[in-house]
Amino acid sequence: MRLAGFGMRAVAASVTVGLLAPLARAFYLPGIAPHDYKIGEAVELQVNSLTPSLNAENKLESVLSFGYYDERFHFCQPEGGPKAVHESLGSILFGDRIYGSAFDLHMLKDTSCQVLCQQKIPGADAAFINDKIMKGYNYNWLIDGLPAATVKVDDRTEQQFYSVGFELGSSQAGQLVPHFHNHYEITVQYHTLDAVHHRVVGVVVTPASKNTVLPKDGTASCDAAEPMNLHEDRDNSVVFTYSVKWEASEKSWATRWDDYLHAVDPRIHWFSLINSMVIVVFLSAMLGLILMRTLHKDIARYNSDDAEDLQEDFGWKLVHGDVFRPPQRFELLAVILGSGYQLFWMVVTTLVIALLGFLSPSSRGSLTTAMLLLFIVYGFSAGYNSAHLCHSFGGLSLKRIIITTVLFVPGICWVVLMIINLCLVVAHSSAAAPIGTLLGVMALWFVVSIPLTVCGAYFGFRRKTIDPPVRVNQIPRQIPDQPWYLKPIPSALMGGILTFGAIFIELYFIMNSIWFHKVYYVFGFLFLVFCILVITTAEVTVLLTYFHLCAEDYRWHWRSVYTAGASALYVFLYGILFYFSRLRLASYASLITYFGWMAIACLLFFILTGTIGFVASHLFVRRIYSAIKID
Fold first, then answer.
1. Exposure string for 198-226, b = 16+ CB within 10 A, e = fewer
2. What is the pTM of this model?
3. Which terminus in the chain has less CB density within 10 A, N or C?
4. What is the model's pLDDT at position 331?
């Protein structure tokens, strides 16, 4: 029985690429073309949503973002109102809301203490702003595609680096009312190409809190020593001011992101990789011992013509007539595996594109956009493999398998996302996806994904079914009592912990990047960790499948899926640990958003790893039963 088509060579291909990956280095292709400015040319400053960061206690208290022009902030608006900037689908789905601003910047033109506007902030809105300051919210501005940053120093290396965003305000221990940052010292670094053309290569903002008084002539002095405190029991008059300084830099446009892409400690990534490799070597040694010694002896004895040896047959040969019996609920199994192929090819293609540098940080939301579009396109793979496997298991209803494949993973994810989005709408968060964006995603699903799934299912159902290498008995064999460690839950937990052990360190960096709005860029490490994940999952599942067959338990189909997919449970438990150690979410909207996304991630991870485990076990089972003689 040959495994389904183009998807079945996934494990072998990933192992091969994983071995070759260290020989190659990823290169960077810019996501946008450079903009050459002339002296005096206007340079637009764009504003994005305010996002939460660590508070004074080094905890994240919220995961909700709020639009810059949320009426409760009372920030200065440009003449004619703010104009939205075109954004990618992924950027919108992950909460970016970019607009033009009232700031007036011109290349190489320094300005000092320019007045933006004067605003009156009521006490109720002052309470809202103070709450966001206490929760560590940050401004997020963009100039020429570069985020405005704060200069920080690495405690270990004493090296300076740029941290994206800058504080909405400041609060010291014992301070009753926080300071609101209403003055901005903007330093723009530029690189000179020639006497005429210049490029922006860095943006640093140093905010300050100044209780500036605006005289009648409209000119202000930014020398006020008294900080700007927003009182919640009365109206507050706030003057917003800024200064601009242009600073020459030797950095080229191609390397301007280097200061933003700071690794806290690169040795941790290497430790993660070495830790994963140790697990792989250990499992490979065990698997090699079984395949080269125990299994080889079993096959030689089973194929022996010695009558005495034949009488001593035991273990996995005794279940040859049942091992290829169609499993229970095989239609659901086929749908899960088809979706697993879809996810696998989506992940592999995304990582390859990222390694080639097409998903650069200058293209906001490009990673999410690529993953979403690839998932939609690979709907063909989901339909093809679901229908082929279901037909091979004995399924006869093509219509049912199509409907289930179309609705299973996308339907579950859509329902959870709608719940999250509804909570964000109620909380007035800018992270709530607009109705137009949601309709656009639905249109992609109906117009592209569903037709591709139907087309793939049609060809998969028509393909020749997978024939077992041995005859299946009509009457199922009775399964003896299993030892406790081979029962479903213990064996799955044992298999899942080994797979999780290969990825948990890199998982920390991924979650830190998502929830703390850090730039994740080490796709080389991530690709190698993914290859190790594939190898580890395959080897763990094959080992446990062999142990189950030796115990005369032939129900390996579902066992291989949830043994490999059990690592998703550990990922969810790690998410809970991450919540208690790094987060302190107070609002229901933040809680639902965090655990809702964790649930989606763990579901997809279960389907992905479960499919890898099934593929490896299926190839293993076919190989060993094809090697023995059956009377």
1. bbbbbbbbebbbbbbebeeeeebebebee
2. 0.87
3. C
4. 92
